[in-house]
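Methods — Computational structure assignment.
A single polypeptide chain was analysed. Its primary sequence is given first, followed by the predicted tertiary structure written as structure tokens.
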Amino acid sequence: ELAPKLAGILQLQISPVALPGFARYQAAWQRLTPAECARLVPGAPGQLQLNQSAFEGTADSSGAYAYDAVAAAALAMRAVAADNGTAPSNSSTASYGARLNAAIRSLNFSGATGHVSFKHGSGDRAPRDQELVLSNWQWRDGALSSDMFVRVKLSGVLAAAKARIGLVEYGLRN
């Protein structure tokens, strides 16, 4: 079996699980029920095969990033509509797309994965609240589990790296 062989491996990843926004996301996730999910998918109540155990335990961090992506799109669409008073059907697609792009790049909100904002120029997510987490995977009582033992803000790591060795490649520049 593979799992016991993974014991002792160190994993470095960007993780939102220790941030306050993830705690809010986690609490909302655990309040969900299969019936609520079926209501959210009109015309497909029999296609969702969920049971309550799907909402127990820790929510997957990938879902938190998807949640923030949808929130960013919705907030940007609302900002474009408020500024122009026109829906996409009443304006050219290219013009709406440009306004939507500008609105997304100007967003600044507290999401499930931390502070969400974007860098000028590249449009990449600014690493303000993102945390690097170093985990140590161990085999305990017949199961693989990890302990987070180092958490550090990604923005601090990037600033220190640029100051010390001048990294500018692979998106490590502002």
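Note: The chain has a mean pLDDT of 79.
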